[in-house]
Amino acid sequence: KQGTEVERTSNPVRADGFASFGNCKRNAYTNRGLKMLIDKSYFTSETIYIPESVDEERLNASIREAQDDDLRKGLGEKLFADVIINPTDPRNVLLLDGDTYTDSSGDAIIFSGARIALAYWSVAKFVRKNQITITSHGVVKKQSQHSEQASAEEISILSNSLKAQGNSYFEQVKKYLCEKSSEFPEYNEGDSRISGPVNSYSI
């Protein structure tokens, strides 16, 4: 217990959501696990449909991976941290759920929000992994007597298509953040590592 108190004192959480460890810094919430910005209930006919029978634990694992990988790369570390820690902040609600605004050219823009990009990225990861199960006897492919197993190429094509759609939605996010730069000073477009709708996953 005493050691825990010393650790808390020597590694204070900073205002930007990071904890300092000597010359390094680490996300303060890393060990607690990231808050999920979407869950199974988000996937409907109005967003991206997936069957009710889909394994929720497997889906959640893919959501966490997409959030910590794709969304983190897209938003940059500072804004990502703020969105995760403060998802109900009014500006972050609009960033996540969408907004209607007038851009610098005077055009009315309907913005879909960042959650839909995260949803497509999540399913892109999920379809690559859902056919594979780790058992006590090794790694196996799931089989069903009622359906034909998709080939690795077919799964790769579907995954890449979903990934590309997520990247396309994220282009809206980048434009929104640039247009609203005064409201999102943490965001630097140069830090975003989502380069466009053509990135792909491989199997």
How many E-type strands?
6
Low-pLDDT residue intervals, each spanning 5 or more residues: 1-32, 133-140, 197-203
> Strand order, biggest sheet?
1-2
Anisotropy-based shape: globular
Distance between the termini: 46 Å
Estimate the strand proportion. 5-15%
SS content category: alpha+beta
Gyration radius, in Å: 19 Å
Determine the number of helices (DSSP H or I, runs of at least 4 residues): 6
Question: What is the string of SSEs from the N terminus onward?
Answer: HEEHHHEEHEEH
* Mean pLDDT over the residues: 79
Helix amount, in percent?
40-55%
Largest sheet: 2 strands, antiparallel
Fold and architecture overview:
With 203 residues, this protein is α+β, with helices and mostly antiparallel strands. The chain contains six helices and six strands, in the order αββαααββαββα. It is 44% helix and 12% strand. The strands form three sheets. The chain has a two-stranded antiparallel ribbon. Strands 3-4 form a two-stranded antiparallel sheet. Strands 5-6 form a two-stranded antiparallel sheet.
Concise overview:
The protein has 203 residues and is of the alpha+beta class.
Notable characteristics:
203 residues, alpha+beta, two-stranded antiparallel ribbon, 6 strands, 12% strand, globular
Please give the structural blueprint.
Layout: H1 2-10, E1 18-21, E2 24-27, H2 56-75, H3 77-85, H4 90-97, E3 99-102, E4 108-111, H5 114-129, E5 132-135, E6 138-141, H6 152-179
Antiparallel strand pairs: 1-2, 3-4, 5-6
Helix pairs in contact: 2-3, 2-5, 5-6
